[in-house]
Design a protein that fits this description.
The chain is of the alpha+beta class and 107 residues long. The protein has a single domain (4-106), classed as 2-Layer Sandwich (Herpes Virus-1). It contains 3 helices and 6 strands; from the N terminus they run αβαββαβββ. A 6-stranded antiparallel sheet has the order 1-6-5-4-2-3. A hairpin with a 7-residue loop joins strand 4 and strand 5. It starts with a helix and ends with a strand. 34% of the residues are buried. The model has no long low-confidence stretch (mean pLDDT 94). It binds zinc ion (3 copies). One zinc ion (ZN) is lined by residues 56, 58-59, 61, 76, 80, 82.
Length: 107
């Protein structure tokens, strides 16, 4: 299981980040628990496939990336307004803000 998101959340909440645009949404980040650890929650429900996984930093919903057919992470943002996701891939450590269209890296 990918645990790197925990450190990223901690850094984002304490301002230890670098970002492209000044994102004011980091204060909204919650101490989330992933809704699914084995894959995209909504793809698993319908038996579909995904490419990469993202996790909502407001509620913990795990969804698939925009290279995936169903784009569940973006869909979740449109449906809920939850602005921040992080990568849920073990090798990637970044946060994306949909509102500011900004990449944020833990530093
Ligand atoms: Zn933002
Ligand atoms: Zn999906
Ligand atoms: Zn969410």
């Amino acid at each position: 299981m990918n645990e790197s998101y925990k450190e990223m959340i901690e850094k984002a909440r304490t301002g230890q980040v670098e970002m492209e645009e000044d994102c004011q949404h980091l204060a909204l980040i919650q101490d989330v628990t992933p809704s699914k650890t084995e894959g995209c929650e909504d793809c698993l429900k319908i038996g579909d496939k995904w490419v990469h996984l993202r996790m909502c930093l407001i509620c913990g919903k795990v969804g698939c990336c925009d290279n995936s057919k169903n784009k569940h992470a973006s869909r979740h943002n449109k449906e809920t307004g939850h602005a921040l996701i992080c990568s849920f891939e073990p090798s990637e450590e970044w946060i994306w803000c949909y509102e500011d269209e900004a990449m944020i890296w833990a530093s």
